[in-house]
Write a structure and sequence with these properties.
8-stranded mixed β-sheet; alpha+beta; single chain; 7 helices; Aminopeptidase; globular
């Protein structure tokens, strides 16, 4: 299945994008030019992508979960510059059916509007909403699940730093469109099970994955 190839701006126009593996240089660029622009109310406000890429990569490989770091980037100033950062596990037990494998979204961060306006010198109306970039990032995870032969199965944990707004985004049928794993439902074996299910775990099964993927076909 094809990844997205464009994102929508506030004015309704489109910016061309492409999906690529994340390099150390991409992580350094994000930490230098993007991370400091993220608002304090967001769950990803204190992330460090150089550290994430290293620690999660090593830990995921040790657990045979096949970590994969991806970016969605645009061509600006004749350079490929990231606007979405994404770290996945390609071999994680499905939250709703641990006998099957799924893609687990460990980290997902869309660039804020002020990155486009202040750093890339885009007019605000020519910049995408962060919520739209969030949807694009989730579609990349879904597409990756399909391309790994996992039927679109995806799981994630909504960081409590994102509060109710993040929870509501994943629940919204026109945004995340995911199902909530009931609080207290056992998690797959591993350190997450030891921490317990705090009621902030979401998943896509085949049905919700198909619906969510079709909504994003216009951007492929």
């Amino acid at each position: 299945m094809k990844y997205v190839s464009k994102v929508k701006t506030r004015s309704g126009d489109f910016l061309p994008v492409r999906v690529s593996d994340m390099s150390r240089a991409h992580a350094e660029y994000w930490d230098t030019h993007v991370q400091g622009r993220i608002e304090s109310k967001r769950a990803d406000k204190d992330w460090n992508w150089l550290r994430i890429r290293l620690i999660v990569g090593l830990g995921g490989r040790a657990l045979f979960q096949k970590p994969r770091a991806l970016i969605v980037g645009i061509e600006a100033d004749r350079q490929f510059q990231p606007c979405i950062m994404l770290l996945l596990l390609e071999r994680y037990p499905a939250l709703h059916d641990p006998q099957r494998s799924s893609v687990f979204v460990w980290y997902l961060s869309p660039a804020p509007t002020n990155y486009f306006v202040e750093h890339l010198a885009y007019p605000k109306e020519d910049s995408p909403h962060a919520s739209h970039l969030m949807a694009i990032g989730m579609d990349v995870a879904l597409t990756h699940s399909y391309n790994c032969g996992l039927s679109g199965l995806v799981g994630l944990h909504a960081d409590e730093g994102g509060g109710d707004d993040l929870m509501n985004w994943y629940k919204d049928a026109k945004k995340g469109g995911m199902s909530l794993l009931p609080e207290g439902e056992p998690l797959p074996p591993g350190f997450r099970r030891l921490l317990g299910n705090d009621g902030r775990y979401f998943y896509h099964d085949e049905g919700t994955a198909e619906s969510a993927s079709k909504r994003m076909d216009i951007y492929r």
